[in-house]
Amino acid sequence: MKALLAPRTGGLLALAIVIALLPAVLPNNFYFNVVILVGLNAIVCIGLNLLIGYAGQISLGHAGFFGLGAYASALLTSSYGWPSLAALVVGAAAVGALAFLLARPILKLKGHYLAMGTLGMGVIISIVLNQEAGFTGGPDGMPVPAFAVLGWTAYGERTWYWIVGGTLLVTTWLALNLIESPVGRALRAIHGSEIAAEVIGVKTERFKTLVFVISAVLASVGGSMFAHYSGFITPSEAEFFHSIAFVTMVVLGGMASIFGSILGAAILTVLPQFLAVFHDYETLVLGAVMMGVMIFLPKGLLPSLAELLRRRRL
Amino acid sequence: MSALVVTGLSKNFGGLRAVSDLSFTVEEGQIFSIIGPNGAGKTTVFNLITGIYRPDDGRVWLHGGDIAGKPPSALAAQGLTRTFQNLQIFFNMTALENVMVGADRTAESGFASAMLRLPAVRRRDARACEQAIGLMQRVGLAAYLAADAASLPYGALKRLEIARALATRPKLLLLDEPAAGLNRSETKEIDALIRSIAEDGVTVILVEHDMRLVMGISDRILVLDRGARLAEGSAQEVGRNPDVVRAYLGTGFAGSADAA
After folding, report:
1. Does B111 touch chain A if contact means CB atoms closer than 8 Å?
2. Which residues of chain B have pLDDT under 70?
3. Could you give phi then psi for residue B174, rounded to 5 degrees?
4. Is B106 close to A203, i.e. CB distance below 8 A?
5. What is the pLDDT of residue B255?
6. Among candidates A178, A189, A201 on the partner chain, residue whose Cβ is nearest the Cβ of B90
7. By the 8 A CB rule, do B42 and B227 touch?
8. Is residue A314 part of a domain?
9. Is A269 domain-assigned?
10. Do residue B106 and residue A174 have CB atoms under 8 angstroms apart?
11. Contact call for residues B160 and B132 (beta carbons, < 8 A)
12. How many Å apart are CA A124 and CA A135, to the nearest integer?
């Protein structure tokens, strides 16, 4: 029972219950669509938080990996007739391999320089997707066949809800396991003091490389699923502004908080839909909300709220 | 065999000769201190030995093996680790987790098994936790087992760094000013701790400004001045050396060294 109430198991259980019960209260497909997008963003943000929040390495280019995953699935299934799942897996493996090659030179950079390096990486990917119109359709984008496994085809919001919900649950479980392991402690140690981690035996370069690869693979998987779900993609998925959106979700929800990433993804995906009532002032209100959170809850929503609760109890 | 042999070690920063043609030998099980005025190159020597800086010239042998150019993490695996003059604590973790990182032997841990939380990972977690608890008790931090590292007072953080270093099971431990900023009684505790570490067979190299501590504890002392050796010997020899007195200790110290 005690293990069940531990933050890790308890949180995972709460997430499973929310995912299981949510369809009962969602009135129509519009809401299902929003929640599916929340789930897809959350999958990417969990990976990004492992990199930014836990290991302390910024990336302003992860939409590039998201876009590559989306286009890998689109191209392999439509132009080459691959099965959807094989395209997703091969796409993720290729993105992982690319991230591995880029990690060594890029992660040697620190702070602002790392931000610039990853930003450049994302911009290059975005340019390639725009320019290689022969493959990608260029800025006009390209259609993506429906997700099909062994003759079964995923149609409709309700089916996708369960696919994304299940993937999010598994991703959360894997990420929680990782951060509570020797590997997770090594990543957090790198964030705390890279030099101290190194002198007590942590091969910092190896761990930075691997967490970069994991975050890129999760972005790629998110991109592949988004491509099949939406049925049409454009190079804007890989754009700089999309990268910033992911980072903002991570920071708003809370650095070094897996559930914070889900919360951040949820708020920044849902809020714009409901702020539409403000018409022209939508972005203004969104910006004000984010500034408010950063000023009054600088650790991000979830860690700050958890701290507040703890203090109340004391 | 000697624990550490340094020959002809040199390091320049721009036009500044931080360390020039320095040679010394540390025998196994010794407490070997390096002293000297500020800017003498003590911390630079530490950084050269532990692989943080690359020497411009010279060699470093650890237990007979050449270690020049190896990264710090590889040296840690060979039993060489250190603490820092300005604290390098993982403030984003609990005190216990800080020590667990040292005990983790992360080189052997794979990402896949960690993500799936396989039984082997759980066993290693439990073992690291047990070791870390034992070490925190040993350095006198039992009261802080559940605390965030950021909430510990300064003196406790100094000991936390030592516990974290001990968790790697070093054969050679470099302590960079472990008593800096500590009061009398805290310094006494550090003194006793260093002695007990040496009694366990760990060779200790100490950089420290607290002369009472250095003179009382050291088997051998190396005095640096402007990156070069000024003198080397026992506490008594060094304390009586007129060059050392002039450059660093100040007149009237020889007497107090004898008293200690």
Report:
1. yes
2. 106-107, 251-260
3. -105, 120
4. yes
5. 47
6. A189
7. no
8. no
9. no
10. no
11. no
12. 16
- Which DSSP state fits B94? B
Query: Which amino acid appears at position A112 of this protein?
Result: H
Tokens of B18: 């931080």
CATH superfamily of B1-79+170-260: P-loop containing nucleotide triphosphate hydrolases (3.40.50.300)
Q: What is the pLDDT of residue A280?
A: 80
Beta strand B203-207 pairing with B172-176: parallel
CB contact under 8 Å between B50 and A189, yes or no, is no
Q: Which ranges constitute the DSSP H helices of A200-300?
A: 204-230, 240-253, 258-274, 282-296
Burial class (CB in 10 A: 0-12, 13-18, 19+), B78: middle
Within 8 A of A184 by CB-CB distance, chain B residues are: 114
Collapsing DSSP to helix, strand or coil, B84 comes out as coil
The one-character DSSP state at B249 is: I
Residue A6: what pLDDT? 60
Q: Cα angle at B127 between B144 and B156, to 5 degrees?
A: 20
Which range has the worst mean pLDDT, A143-147, A196-200, A293-297, B224-228? Answer: A293-297
| Domain count within chain A | 1
In a domain, A277, yes or no: no
**Which residue ranges make up each domain of chain B?**
1-79+170-260, 89-169
Q: Which residue has the tokens 């660093």?
A: B248
Domain that holds residue A98: 17-246
Average pLDDT in the A122-140 region?
A: 91
Q: Which two tokens stand for residue A188?
A: 């957090």
Q: Which residue intervals of B37-176 are DSSP H helices? A: 42-49, 72-77, 95-103, 111-116, 119-138, 154-166
Burial class (CB in 10 A: 0-12, 13-18, 19+), B188: middle
pTM of the model: 0.92
CB A66 within 8 A of CB A44: yes
Q: How many helices (H) and strands (E) does chain B have?
A: 11, 10
One-letter amino acid identity for B132?
Answer: A
Are B164 and A199 in contact (CB < 8 Å)?
no
Helix A29-49, helix A240-253: angle, nearest 10: 80
Which residue in A42, A15, A59 sits closest to A225, CA to CA? A42
> What are the two backbone dihedrals, phi and then psi, of residue A68, each rounded to the nearest 5 degrees?
-65, -40
Closest CA to B98 of B50, B51, B141: B141
pLDDT value of position A2: 45
- Is the separation of the CB atoms in B80 and B171 below 8 Å? yes
In a domain, A263, yes or no: no
pLDDT given for residue B62 in this prediction: 95
Amino acid identity of residue A41, one-letter, is N
